[in-house]
Amino acid sequence: MQLANFTLHRLLSPISIRCTPAAVINRTLRSSPALLGKKYAKYYFTPKKIFRKEEIYRVPKTQLILPHERLDPLNIPEPSAPTATESGLLEQLASAVNHEQSTSGRPFAIVHLVGKQYKVSEGDLVQLVGKSLLAELGDELVLEKVLALGFTDFTLYGRPMLSRDCVTVRATVVEKTLEPPKIRFEFRKRQNFRRMNIHQTNATVLRIGSIEFNKPAVQQAL
């Protein structure tokens, strides 16, 4: 026992840590872990360095979901039917939307295209940069990912998108071209190193043809 203690203290001294291989120290520590005590219990050794082991992170109880707070996906309660007051409000809202659609001259829509959002109106040009669409020139597209539809004094927002039966946005491919060239020049002084690259990205131009609003489906969508 005394010999083992002497060996450990000799190995764990600053001079011995520099001279003794890390494998020998770790093998000695594993063979007699009870002799380490609290001082060296949380450390492991590498050549000329001592690193502390990462402690296990514990989530506090305030951030945990308790068993009685968990929802069973098979027994999710269904939303209650709208009352007479809510039905009246929905009818008023639907009539207001239909009236605004008939009186407004140029509605706008927020659509999702190629990972970005665009605010468009009838007759606008939208340039999509990055990915080349498979559609050819003159093809008509139906933009189904509509996030919002707005008029002069009224706006409809989706959760996150409006229903396909509620709004229809049509666009036409008018041009498929390349962006202006971008020059990348790299120079390293005193090394006779020069590199120049010219890069152009595909671009597709769409013209928004029409933004149609399906009036009979307003109340169902809301």
UniProtKB/TrEMBL annotation:
GO cellular component terms listed in the entry, alphabetical order: mitochondrial large ribosomal subunit
GO MF annotations in UniProt: structural constituent of ribosome
Source superkingdom: Eukaryota
InterPro entries xrefs: bL21-like, bL21-like_sf
Family note: Belongs to the bacterial ribosomal protein bL21 family.
UniProt protein name: Large ribosomal subunit protein bL21m
